[in-house]
Design brief:
By secondary structure, this protein is an all-alpha fold. The chain has 14 helices and no strands. The longest helix has 29 residues. The radius of gyration is 21 Å and the shape is globular. The N and C termini lie far apart (50 Å).
Length: 298
């Protein structure tokens, strides 16, 4: 997962010639081919495929990287690419409602699928043989391990993800992402990285019961934010909703629909994840109870 994060970091480095909000509003829906998005996405896909195929050649198909893992990575990668490159992104530049859909796909769909795929092994095998051990040694450095242990603690990861969501939805900052492409990339990058950290911490470092609680807390605070946007008596995001009338909505209606997207559909995804963690917790608890309460021979 850390390799995937490193590959997406170049999103920060672009210095686009045009502001995000200065894009031509006319024309037909189109795919976005920003090289600072396309190159990391294609590189990560090439690494995963290269490492997986190399493993399968040595160990057999499905060994090292399972077929299910490959399917999960494909689903997560396609979700992420669809959110950032497809006409959904084009519409998101013009409608707050679809911009919100784009964000939720990144955070609540693509991120957990990528974490479930556990692509780190495939990424490692994609490296030349001479680089694997040095990279492994760097990753095992005590300073890095301590930093990662702190950042990936479930409570820390949940708080960082929540801060990213709330800070970027401050009206001034959100409107700045519409007007400045570097800010927009930074917003998407922080959403993706903190979402990857959040889901990784719950799936890899948390007990299922505690993970369910963290997901519920995230669902509650994002639903609160969505509710505030839905019932706000005035337009809060002037730049983001400036073009809403071109698509048959008033700015306030566009803002309300965006709030509803965060509140209901996204909340449903978090609720489903919480139920999944809870079911796993009950299942494990049942196994422990049966083992502990089984009668012992005299």
């Amino acid at each position: 997962m850390r390799a995937l994060i490193a590959l997406i970091l170049p999103l920060l480095l672009a210095a686009g010639a045009h502001a995000h909000g200065a894009h031509d509003r006319a024309g037909e829906p189109a795919w976005t081919f920003d090289p600072w998005v396309v190159v990391p996405l294609l590189t990560s896909l090439a690494l995963f495929l290269g490492g997986t195929l190399r493993l399968w050649r040595h160990a057999g198909i499905g060994r090292g990287v399972g077929v299910g893992q490959a399917a999960l990575y494909a689903a997560g990668w396609l979700s992420l690419a669809g959110a950032l490159l497809s006409p959904l992104h084009w519409f998101g530049e013009r409608l707050f409602t679809l911009h919100m859909v784009e964000h939720e796909v990144v955070m609540a769909v693509a991120a957990p699928l990528l974490v479930l795929a556990r692509p780190g092994g495939a990424f490692a095998w994609a490296l030349p043989a001479g680089l694997r051990r040095p990279v492994w040694r760097i990753g095992r450095a005590p300073e890095l391990r301590r930093s990662w242990a702190l950042l990936s603690a479930p409570l820390v990861a949940t708080v960082l993800h929540g801060i990213a969501i709330w800070v970027w939805h401050l009206p001034a900052l959100f409107d700045a992402t519409v007007l400045h492409i570097v800010m927009h990339r930074l917003q998407h990058l922080s959403f993706l990285l903190t979402a990857l950290l959040f889901w990784w911490s719950l799936m890899r470092r948390s007990e299922p019961g505690a993970a369910a609680l963290h997901v519920v807390l995230t669902m509650l605070h994002t639903s609160l934010l969505g509710t505030l946007m839905t019932f706000a008596p005035r337009v809060l995001y002037g730049a983001q909703t400036a073009q809403s009338s071109l698509w048959g909505l008033t700015p306030l209606e566009d803002q309300q629909l965006a709030g509803l997207i965060m509140w209901v559909p996204a909340g449903t995804v978090y609720a489903a994840a919480a139920l999944g963690f809870f079911a796993l917790w009950v299942k494990r608890s049942g196994r422990a109870w049966r083992a502990g309460d089984a009668p012992h021979p005299p």
